[in-house]
Amino acid sequence: MDKIDVSIVLADLLTGKLSKHLLPYVLHEVTHYWTFTSLVGQSLSIIGLESKSKLTKINDDDLLYVKEMASLDIMYNSVFTFLQPLLEGMAEFAEFDLAPGSSSLISQVSNIMGILFLMKDLRELDIHNINDVDVSQLLIESLYSKRLTNLFIERKKALYYHSIDPLKSSYLTGYLTVKNMQRTLILNCKRFTDSELFFIYLKAFFFEDPELAKIILSEYKDPFEIPSIVINYFHKRIMKFFQIDHSKYIDVFINELLNKKSSIYKIDSYVTGKIESFSVDQQKTDELIEVLMNSRIKSMIDIHPDSDSKIRKLFISLLLQRNVITIANNQVLIKTDKAGRLTLFDINGKPMLSLDTEHTICNNFEGLLDVNVFLLFEPLGLHVVISEQDKVLSSFCLNGKKIPDDKLDYFIGRNQTLATIKELTKGSSFLKTDEVFNIYVKYMEENIFPNLKNLFNGAALFNIPDDFYLQTLEKMEIAGLSSILDDDDLLYDFTIASIVSTHYLNPYSSEINSFVRGKSLINSIKKINFKIEKILGFKNFILVGNETIHTSL
Question: What is the rounded CA–CA span in Å between residue 180 and residue 205?
């Protein structure tokens, strides 16, 4: 997270009182990490790393791997291209809609918000572990009520300037797709008004799917067959989401998560009732995925058979880091006194933190050292590692379980790791000019891009009446909603109305509920409806009494 400078905010990080102006940024970025701590995310990471690992062995005279490299490249990019609108849509949803509701579930994203922004409040309540308290009310009162501040309003208004064309931008297309998915679920199960429940369920449906993991991890002799496999999967999967009755599976889904009895990706068998690609039972499904994963990892690692190989260790390091967020990584002025007590200073020379902890820094030391702040997803906890030239000098954990000492080396120097791999693979640049390789890539783009656009345009405008779909799409391909409203003040009002309509679904949102009853908002909604109806032919907001606002966009 490059916007968080540890030399400025370390004390706030460690005490759990990070500035609220960082909230939308952290919500967005943490969601990306969270979605990729999943079966599908891990599978994509494995084939991506396998590709890079093999590139370290290729030189300009070696074309043996061209077809194999094309298969890995096309699979990774085809799947990631289709996931991109969902990834950005979920991240935008986390920024503008996510809030704990009436279910017993709370996402790791919200738990991390508690650790980074609320631990100080929890300690003042004499609560020392994030897991010992229902943080729902605190999250709503301290964090999510900020959504009616200018910081959030301006960020969401900026979202509405993006084109709805996913080939130009995934943000608005993805956000409207995710919003329509929630509205669809709410129609047959009101429990999905709980945005946390919906958020966790959505991740399970798309990112814990063993069918997609199997597609990603399988080997293909012909790269030309990959685009159609990926296209067919995503068409089927997204259409299924909009068509099936999810209310049949929600109780089992919640119980499995709360009791943690099943492997995380087994959830999918409850969501869809059946995994079409497999004729084996669930245990054998788990085993098949494990076999495929291990085969890919073995292929990646065995290219570098020397167990002491620096390259081998680099790739193992990146694999292990999939469960870790690097919150900050900067050099910090550190001093030790004659008793060895550590003090960390900010960029102005002001002490940020002083503590007694085990370390190998000499007494009476003064100098710049690397300070790495990590968040582990499982088990959830905030970790600090002090190092010099990738050598660990000290580490401590503020909450959760401490990283084992033998694993610490893998979690420091990530930027250097990536830079080293980039240097090792630059000799393979011939692939970019290889005629056969580029035929495969061009074929992928010609097939994936039009299908991506058609699928996600339909999902993003799912609630638009059929008679007005094409004219809405034509307008929004230019510059999103701003192309329709064409008035910055009206777009500002639209943004507020959209925030209010979202949080009206949440029983805790008393602050926002009182705001919606203001006459100025009702008048704005009437103006917005008039403008949209004049241009497109339909009303966007529908007031049901003074209690609910439904939206088409």
Answer: 15
The band of 215, judged by pLDDT with boundaries at 50, 70 and 90, is very high
Contacts for 163 with CB less than 8 Å, ≥ 6 apart: 169, 172, 476, 477, 478, 479, 480
8-state DSSP, 334: E
Question: From residue 217, how far is each of 46, 47, 268, 388 by CA, in Å?
Answer: 8, 7, 18, 37
Residue 521 contacts by C-beta under 8 Å, 6 or more apart in sequence?
Answer: 493, 496, 497, 500, 515
pTM of the model: 0.86
Residue among 210, 259, 230 at smallest CA distance from 81: 230
Per DSSP bridges, beta strands 351-355 and 342-345 are antiparallel
In a 3-state reduction of DSSP, which class is residue 322? helix
Confidence (pLDDT) at 46? 86
The candidate with the shortest Cα–Cα distance to 241, out of 207, 266, 217, is: 207
Q: What are the structure tokens assigned to 210, written together? A: 């063993």
So what's the pLDDT on residue 241? 93
Q: Where are the domains of the chain?
A: 15-303, 316-427, 463-551
268, amino acid identity? D
pLDDT tens sequence across 230-264: 999 999 999 999 998 888 888 888 887 777 644 33
Mean pLDDT value of segment 428-441: 76
Terminal-residue alpha carbon distance, the chain: 31
Tokens of 542: 């529908």
**Pairwise CA distance, residues 541 & 553, whole Å:** 9
